[in-house]
Amino acid sequence: MAKKKILLWLHNGPYSYFHYSIAIELSKLDDYDFYGFVETKKDMEFFQNQKNLEFTELHYFSEKYFDQIKPDLDYLSNLEKKYKLNLWLIAYSERWFNQERSLFHKFSSDEILSIVESLSKFYIDFLSRTQPDFILMQSAGESITNFLLYHISKSMNIKSLMLMDTHLKDSFVLSDNIFLHEIKDEFHKIKHSPPTTINNYGIEYLENRKLLDSAITLMNAQDENTVGLKNKLKRYSKRFFTSSEPLFYNRGKTLSAMTNWRINSTRKLEERTSFLEKFANKSIPSKKFVYYPLTVQPESSTSVRAPFYQNQLSLIQNISKSLPIDYILCVKEHPGQKSKIWRPIEFYEYILSLQNVELIHPSVKNSTMIENCDLVTLINATTGLEALFYKKPVIVFEDSFYDQVSMVKKISNFNELPSAIHEHLNNFSFKSNELSFLVNALENKHIVIPYWDVMSEAIKISTKRIHSSVTETEKDFEEFFNKNQKSFTLIANEYNSFPLN
Fold it and tell me: Which of 60, 21, 27, 30 is closest to 43 using CA atoms?
């Protein structure tokens, strides 16, 4: 019997060591040939020297776009048609190409298309030649490099298997798509042949299961060595004396540019924090209200899974126009936006300028907002799922795995919005059996692992790797792997049993 072929996505950062750990456990379950795509020279050095896996091929894929070429539009046009791609939609998902991250280098269309063309040629050649059974990667869209690979592999009927969060703490589903169709399919299967026992789920189910708790763990790990201007400047100095890789997102990042950016960012953070403290409401309004929680940006939750809803100000305005006259819209800033230096003051000023809209401070608990509102509106995030346990109606604007229940209305046309809001406010009917089916579908498909705790430890390895020797990294990795081996074994079993046909 032929060995299964696995392409490991060993992207820069914690995913390199997380995916490598899963692969080690996979190698104990079956005969596999391992291939690897590595982003940085430092990681390449580590994976070439490690002894736990034997790689059939190991590629430093970043070098494929180092030499800029004049993009061939005929090639790219044919590529789109042959593989049914929308290359600009893929390119716009990359945060470093967008306005928010173009502070160091403003990418021209030729530079972007040059990267897309070079990587596409490399990916297609590799996948056609090796024909892997699946790709082991994180959720597609955290970088254009893996989002492009995801779309090309899908067109070639090669599965990209990703651990996708279910908006509940430590709950993940192994999926080959970014919209978790597995849960939708399982929901409809259960609904078609319902169990004899229907559970009545309420807010007690959410206790200790809120995703925000895990997100805070990860944010703390990311900030541990970089809090404060002094520590950040020290980190930048180390980085520029130990690494000069020409990765596309490093273009324009001179030490002086990074230092100036950090100083300006610290100032902006202080100004924006002060503005929120002064003008954002820290209490629940006395009026009846519809709730809209802002989504953190830039993040793949919008740029990848809701690319046509990235202008949240436009969305807020459309919701506010659609409200009944006796309602206001409460817009709450997400506490996770602080890591992105909040939003421009002009953004908040626009919200405050709308007559029937209130800006809510990020310190106000999300659960308090859900409990006191009459309707939750959002793009596609965690709050929509949580609202169901509070028996609240929900309106979403983009695909989410929980939009299959009748308590959730997906809006595909803004002309539908006023009537949808009125219908949900005046004629809402909560169906406990549907929520029970949804929970059953989640629990039938998910695995429970302390993912964010493990990732926070992997972040420490990847951060130290920049200026550590291979020997030092091997020691750090061994401690990390041994501590979290049970989780890697559980994940590896999911990969090993995933149906590939």
Answer: 60
Q: Which of 253, 213, 222, 219 is nearest to 236 (CA)?
A: 253
- Cross-strand bridge partners of residue 5: 33
Structure tokens at 55: 């790689």
Per the structure block, which two tokens stand in for 307?
A: 């690319």
Distance CA 383, CA 292 (A): 9
- Contact (Cβ atoms closer than 8 angstroms) between residue 483 and residue 457: yes
Residue the block writes with tokens 């229940």: 405
| CA atoms of 174 and 367, how far apart (whole Å) | 28
Distance of alpha carbon 404 from alpha carbon 364, whole angstroms: 29
CB contact at 8 A, 380 and 400: yes
Which CATH number is 197-205+282-445's, of 3.40.50.2000, 3.40.50.720, 3.30.930.10, 3.40.50.150?
3.40.50.2000
Task: Give CA–CA dist 88/91, Å, rounded.
Answer: 5
Taking the C-alpha atoms of residue 442 and residue 402, their distance in angstroms, rounded to an integer, is: 10
pLDDT, tens digit (0-9, with 9 covering 90-100), for 135-189:
999 999 989 999 999 999 999 999 999 999 998 989 999 999 999 999 999 999 9
Contact 165, 218 (CB under 8 A): no
Q: At what angle do helices 485-497 and 14-26 cross, to 10 degrees?
A: 70
pTM, full prediction: 0.91
Q: How many whole angstroms separate alpha carbon 147 and alpha carbon 150?
A: 5
What whole-number distance in Å separates Cα of residue 266 and Cα of residue 264?
5
Give me 460's structure tokens.
Answer: 């420490």
Give the DSSP H or E segment for 349: helix 345-353
CA-based nearest residue to 85, from 140, 135, 156: 156
- Fold entry, domain 4-166+448-497: Rossmann fold (3.40.50)
Return the closest-CA partner of residue 21 out of 470, 422, 492, 335: 492
Spatial contact of 168 and 385, defined as CB atoms under 8 Å apart: yes
For residue 210, give the 3-state DSSP assignment.
Answer: strand
CB atoms within 10 A of CB 482: 8
Q: Is residue 283 classed as helix, strand or coil in its secondary structure?
A: coil
> Taking Cα atoms as reference points, which of 113, 130, 121 lies closest to residue 56?
130
Residues of CATH 3.40.50.2000 domain(s) within the chain?
A: 197-205+282-445
Q: How does pLDDT run across 327-377, given as a tens digit for each residue?
A: 999 999 999 999 999 999 999 999 999 999 999 999 999 999 999 999 999
Tally Cβ neighbours within 10 Å of residue 3. Answer: 12
DSSP, collapsed to helix, strand or coil, labels residue 81 as helix
